Amino acid sequence: MYGLIAEGHFDAAHFLADYHGKCENLHGHRWRVEVTVESQELGQEGTERSMVADFGRFKRSVAAVCDEFDHRLLVEQGTLKPTTVQALESEGFALEVLPFRTTAENLAHEIFCRLEAKGLPVVQVEVDETPANRAFFRR
Ligand SMILES: Nc1nc2c(c(=O)[nH]1)N=C([C@H](O)[C@H](O)COP(=O)(O)OP(=O)(O)OP(=O)(O)O)CN2
Ligand SMILES: [Zn+2]
């Protein structure tokens, strides 16, 4: 098996509804993202001959997905009143409303799916909320 690993990161704010602790309040993280791709075979021709994927293409794809969350308020759909969402947007704040609770586990899964949709042979996405808090999604 061959593999590559690329790292990305994004800074964002979030809160965990129903948490019953300090994380229910709005706070921020610098999320670190580590993506692993694997393949039994290497490319046969062209730019990606003898590669799992071009490091450049791989890194840019990871960065592009991280950018979709960067400097945004990540909001689980339905956890803020529509009038609050409208008020924040009318102030010019960028929100990313997501159909899941914004845990590191769910973010790892979402990033996995977005990278897979770009055609990368992803096998694992690790998401660190802090150097001590790490989650991953693996398939
Ligand atoms: N399994 C998970 N547990 C928690 C998640 C998560 O995504 N998955 N997220 C949070 C919060 O987002 C929180 O920001 C991080 O939790 P916590 O470790 O409690 O906070 P600190 O890093 O500030 O830790 P201190 O030890 O208080 O400094 C909670 N749980
Ligand atoms: Zn948090």
TrEMBL record:
Pathway: Purine metabolism; 7-cyano-7-deazaguanine biosynthesis. Keywords: Lyase, Metal-binding, Queuosine biosynthesis, Zinc. Binds 1 zinc ion per subunit. The keyword Metal-binding applies. The lineage of its organism: Bacteria, Bacillati, Actinomycetota, Coriobacteriia, Coriobacteriales. One of its GO terms (molecular function) is 6-carboxytetrahydropterin synthase activity. This is 6-carboxy-5,6,7,8-tetrahydropterin synthase. InterPro entries: 6-PTP_synth/QueD, 6-PTP_synth/QueD_sf. NCBIfam families: queuosine_QueD. Transmembrane segments: none annotated. Its cofactor is Zn(2+). Belongs to the PTPS family. QueD subfamily. Its EC number is 4.-.-.-. The active site is at C23, H71, E129. It catalyses: 7,8-dihydroneopterin 3'-triphosphate + H2O = 6-carboxy-5,6,7,8-tetrahydropterin + triphosphate + acetaldehyde + 2 H(+).
